[in-house]
Structure prediction request, 306 residues.
Amino acid sequence: MAYSCAYYEQEPGATFGLDQAQLAKCDLVSRKLGLKPGMRVLDVGCGWGAFVCHAARQYGVKVVGVTLSAEQADYARRRAVEEGVADRVEIRVQDYRDVSDGLYDAIASIGMAEHVGLAMLPTYSASLFALLSPGGRLLNHAISRRPGPPEHFSRTSFIDRYVFPDGELEPLSVMVGALEQAGFEVRDVESLREHYALTLRAWVVNLEANWDRAVELSTAGRATVWRLYMAGSALAFEGNRLGVNQVLAVRPEVRGLSRMPRSRASLLAPTVLVPTVLVPTVPAPTVREPMVAAPTALAPPLSPGA
Prediction:
């Protein structure tokens, strides 16, 4: 269960599919954050718990995941138990602004910043900066729009009405500027635009392969909305009308020390064995919340949201 862009470090095929690509994304984030055993990590908008469980299992860190969805939190807790990492994972139903038990050694925000909004980006950035230890890293993974004035959508438009009622995309430069204004030093930016197109096409394939089950859980109309939305979004990413970027930033120590590797090769060097794909048997929740996950093994959530 994951609802953000996967990372196709290999060509998609019989031996490297969506499940492997989603785990590869979790591992990419972990390597960029420099995770090591014993570190304390915060996952802002933890979704169904894919990253928190991966980081705890593969890197031996202690992870706190926060989400606004009770259904996501319940699923993530059961997943942590099933994967044997419940002693290192804590899942909370909590707003990121209410997290008060910092400092954390690293913070991940994967597919959450799109829902913050331009007006709240300074608060978002400052809150995460305050929760991070000096020398700690933030990985902000978010969809972006092209530069220039935003398009004005009617509240009755297709996307705003049926898919992302509270989504607000900003250009990459706006996100980088907000992080820098909060005190972060941006050290690495990577576009995963083509990866999201592949992810969306894989979700469409999964939805169509499980169409009857999706309709049973929702309605034919809602399933059709999501199929249309994901197919159209794949074209938008392929055509460079939408982007998705991982921005790695650090909270500098006294006198500007960053504790960052001197080369990008060192930053991305694998530190653990390639993860084994685990397919949790935790049943998917029947209640659908706005802005929640698209299962990699079945179909996206058939309700408004991301």
Summary: The beta strands are 40-44, 62-67, 89-93, 104-110, 132-145, 185-191, 242-250. Residues 220-238 form the longest helix (19 residues).
